[in-house]
Amino acid sequence: MLARQRSAGPAVALLVLAWGAMLVRSASAKRTLSAEEGCWYYKHVLDSAESAPRSTPVLSSINVDDAFDVRDVRVADLSLTATKLGPLKITLSASSPTASESDPPKTIVLKDTRTGGVASTLSGVSFDDAAIDAMPANDKATMATVTGAYYPQQDLLNLATGSGKEASRGGSNGVWTLRVVDLATGREERQVGLESWTLVLCPAAPGATGAVEVELSPPVKPATPAVAVGSEGVPAAPVSLVPNTTADTAIVANARAEAEDNSRTTALLAQASPTNCNFM
């Protein structure tokens, strides 16, 4: 992936916490534009995995100050550890900066329970609507580590649906929250540890300027003038359309002279005709 590194500046603010627990500092935040795709990558990496006991969600939120219409949403490079992946439920929410009861966050399920089986690790996993495979069901997941790209339980496109530049209305601007929780029952000793994840937002228009690309019809080429071709396949000399008075006068005079000669010839032949001869 060809990428241009840009300063995160105030555009990205990160918050990682366990529900009801203390605030945890994030290790690093990178905001990168993929020159190849034209998509923004908001990557969050923790110094150490943030963990929480079973039934206590681990939340990781990215505040995106960039404001543009979104055409595609993906989650990339998701890495975490758990006692077992099977009971985990992972969701992604998009909330506008002015979220309220009349403007609630949009939430979709990336991974539901009963998928991932006995594996204990997600390593660099991506969730993408264009992926071919689903997360393997519990009875088919026998590996210890799950890697690769999977389509989510619910379409990520739902988070890009709407009109506006705010996160809950099909735009980018707002708070994007990844939520991981272990829903197994009766096993309080279970732990969930989140290590990293990347939010990928692709603008509806290149450069996130709001401009719309319009496909134009190709220009119509003027017709090529016909060229006269001589007997040898060589283009004939062009015909001049500019009148030549001297030449035209000579041609007319010659034509009249020929006509007069033809008239005299016809008269002489008529006199010599047998019908005008007297025989004794």
C-alpha Rg (nearest Å): 42 Å
What is the H/E order? EEEEEEEEEEEEEEH
List unreliable stretches of 5+ residues.
Answer: 1-28, 209-229, 238-243, 272-280
In total, how many beta strands? 14
State the major sheet: 8 strands, mixed
First-to-last CA distance: 120 Å
- The chain-level structural class is mainly beta
What characteristic shape results from the CA principal axes?
Answer: elongated
Count of discrete alpha- or pi-helical segments spanning 4 or more residues: 1
Estimated share of beta-strand residues:
35-45%
**Average pLDDT value?**
73
**Roughly what percent helix?**
under 10%
Describe this structure in words.
β2 and β3 (23-24) form a beta hairpin. This protein has one helix at 245-271, and strands at residues 3-6, 12-18, 23-24, 28-34, 39-53, 58-64, 70-82, 88-95, 106-111, 121-127, 145-146, 149-150, 174-182, 191-203. The strands form two sheets. Strands 1, 4, 5, 7, 10, 11, 12 and 14 form an eight-stranded mixed sheet that branches. Strands 3-2-6-13-8-9 form a six-stranded antiparallel sheet, with no helix packed on it. It is built from one helix and 14 strands. It has 280 residues and is mostly beta strands. The protein starts with a strand and ends in a 9-residue tail after the last helix. The chain is 10% helix and 36% strand.
Topology:
Layout: E1 3-6, E2 12-18, E3 23-24, E4 28-34, E5 39-53, E6 58-64, E7 70-82, E8 88-95, E9 106-111, E10 121-127, E11 145-146, E12 149-150, E13 174-182, E14 191-203, H1 245-271
Parallel strand pairs: 10-11, 10-12
Antiparallel strand pairs: 1-4, 2-3, 2-6, 4-5, 5-14, 6-13, 7-10, 7-14, 8-9, 8-13
